[in-house]
């Protein structure tokens, strides 16, 4: 019996590694770009894909602004990045995307202290319930609205530093999302409900917002030297669902263990969009596996919805 269990375990382990070396293996960013003299902002940079992205940019010589809410976790990540890369130009600036006031304070602080901005990587995301400081649904407020305001406030600096790029980390989950403008206007949220499944639905809706935001932003940036891209990082092992309920975590744990890949793999398409030369003509496009996906769902390139989301977001942020 013990021998059979041992053989089964070895087969399972072998299958796991074979799966991750073949079907689940993601392409890597091939750019050899050096970033000395360049400045990048990465939101949610203290963990997961954001931390891996910041590490890579620092290794290339960039001045990296770690835009994070939790100072303690950010400073621990900064020490690790500096030790790993030898680049001491890795700076913490506090940013709570669940507070529009915090976003404005961050932008003001950045513009006062930094002379340029070459890369804005809107990476942070969550799948939590509750509301932001301004009364918006937490998922909508952090995943879309906070990043929207941050980007708009930094556009002038991006244009002045060009050529520059904005990279929005979305997800293939956008395909399961919709934007209910009536619900947004009435309830300041993408949907109602707070069960684990309802939170996942809101997450999907927010990822569609990311894609639509990028699509509209590209149109508004035509004629400038700023380009933007949205992307699906892959099915990645991160702590985005760390506040999920027991049942959701119980059912998702084996799926995540066997079929999701690490954060380093998940950062590759972000890095491709940030660094790959010659993709400027693809501004506004959605990327996956380090390549543009030319055929995306029509709802992700709906001109009317993208424009309406932009205008409503401006109104929510007090910009219009």
UniProtKB/TrEMBL annotation:
Keywords: Membrane, Oxidoreductase, Transmembrane, Transmembrane helix. GO terms for molecular function: oxidoreductase activity. Belongs to the short-chain dehydrogenases/reductases (SDR) family. This is Dehydrogenase/reductase SDR family member 13. The chain crosses the membrane at residues 6-24, 243-261. The keyword Membrane applies. Coiled coil: none annotated. PANTHER family: DEHYDROGENASE_REDUCTASE (SDR FAMILY) MEMBER 13-LIKE 1, PHOSPHATIDYLINOSITOL-GLYCAN BIOSYNTHESIS CLASS F PROTEIN-RELATED. The keyword ATP-binding does not apply.
């Amino acid at each position: 019996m013990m021998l059979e269990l041992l053989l089964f375990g070895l087969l399972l382990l072998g299958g796991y590694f074979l799966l991750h070396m073949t079907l689940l293996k993601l392409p890597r960013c091939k750019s050899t770009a050096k970033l000395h003299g360049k400045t990048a902002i990465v939101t949610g940079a203290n963990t997961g894909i954001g931390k891996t992205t910041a590490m890579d940019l620092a290794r290339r010589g960039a001045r990296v602004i770690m835009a994070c809410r939790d100072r303690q976790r950010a400073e621990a990540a900064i020490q690790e990045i500096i030790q790993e890369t030898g680049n001491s130009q890795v700076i913490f600036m506090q940013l709570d995307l669940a507070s529009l006031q915090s976003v404005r304070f961050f932008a003001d602080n950045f513009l006062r202290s930094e002379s340029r901005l070459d890369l804005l990587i809107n990476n942070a995301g969550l799948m939590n319930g509750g509301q932001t400081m301004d009364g918006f649904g937490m998922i909508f407020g952090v995943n879309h609205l906070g990043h929207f305001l941050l980007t708009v406030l930094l556009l002038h600096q991006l244009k002045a530093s060009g050529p520059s790029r904005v990279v929005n980390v979305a997800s293939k989950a956008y395909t399961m999302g919709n934007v209910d403008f009536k619900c947004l206007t009435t309830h300041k949220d993408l949907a109602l409900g707070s069960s684990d499944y309802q939170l996942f639905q809101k997450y999907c809706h927010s990822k569609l917002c990311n894609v639509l935001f990028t699509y509209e932003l590209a149109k508004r940036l035509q004629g400038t030297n700023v380009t933007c891209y949205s992307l699906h990082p892959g099915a990645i092992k991160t702590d985005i669902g760390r506040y999920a309920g027991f049942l959701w975590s119980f059912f998702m744990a084996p799926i995540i263990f066997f079929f999701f890949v690490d954060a380093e793999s998940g950062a590759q398409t972000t890095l491709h969009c940030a660094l790959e030369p010659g993709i400027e003509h693809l501004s506004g496009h959605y990327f996956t596996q380090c390549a543009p996906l030319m055929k995306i769902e029509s709802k992700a390139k709906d001109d009317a919805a993208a424009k309406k989301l932009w205008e409503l977001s401006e109104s929510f942020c007090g910009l219009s």
